[in-house]
Amino acid sequence: MGRTLMLSLDETVDYFARHFTRTAFRLETLDRYDVESDGDEYRRYLAGEDPEPGFKDQWLQLLRDEKAAGKRRHRVHVLRTPLNDYLRYECEWGYAPNVAAGEDIRILDLSETPRPDEVPSEEFWLLDDAHVIVMHYDDGGAFIGGEPVDDPIPYRAARDAAIAASEDFTTWWARHPEEWRTNRMAA
């Protein structure tokens, strides 16, 4: 699909910053991410502890500031229930506060809805409907690099199909109390 080169994490962040002026759409497909931004929070989550106070404050403020400036972030995560521990953590400590701060997050649960043909298994960002960067990860979910793509048309179709087939995170999460940590710990 017109791929060019692999960018490092810093170069990928720079690409994102240069090309995100109005909209940023992310398709997520992994069951686990090994990212520094999680810090020690995943371990805390598994241990039944509360999040570190203020851990996400800077990120949530960025989301609120972007929304106030008219910028919109959209995300669809393709997953399957029952969730693994990491996806439960991501939903409870990641998605729920992100949605409250203004990010539009949707879930395409393959246990409930078939994957549309247009939705690839590769992860990508579509920025301002024109700039695509495919995200590459190793088998453990660690970021390898970002790969800019010249032709955004198939990624627009993938975005549209993923959004049409998915469900708003808040609605989906409310339908799945069996995945909430408090309910799982009580069982």
Walk me through this protein's architecture.
With 187 residues, the protein is α/β, with parallel strands linked by helices. Helices cover 37% and strands 22% of the residues. The protein is built from seven helices and seven strands; from the N terminus they run αβααβαββββαβαα. It has a seven-stranded mixed beta sheet, sandwiched between helices. The radius of gyration is 16 Å and the shape is globular. The N and C termini lie far apart (47 Å). The model has no long low-confidence stretch (mean pLDDT 94).
Overall average pLDDT = 94
Low-pLDDT ranges = none
Could you give the order of strands across the largest sheet?
Answer: 6-5-4-1-2-3-7
Strand content: 15-25%
- Cα-to-Cα separation, first versus last residue: 47 Å
Q: SSE order, as H and E? A: HEHHEHEEEEHEHH
Radius of gyration of CA atoms, rounded to a whole number: 16 Å
Helix content: 25-40%
* Main β-sheet description: 7 strands, mixed
- What best-fitting shape do the alpha-carbon axes yield? globular
Number of strands: 7
Q: Structural class of the helix and strand makeup? A: alpha/beta
- Count of separate DSSP helical elements: 7
Descriptive terms for the model:
187 residues, alpha/beta, seven-stranded mixed sheet
Could you provide a short overview of the structure?
This protein is of the alpha/beta class. The chain has helices at 9-19, 41-46, 57-68, 85-100, 153-165, 169-174, 181-186, and strands at residues 23-28, 72-79, 104-109, 123-127, 131-137, 143-149, 167-168. It is built from seven helices and seven strands, in the order αβααβαββββαβαα.
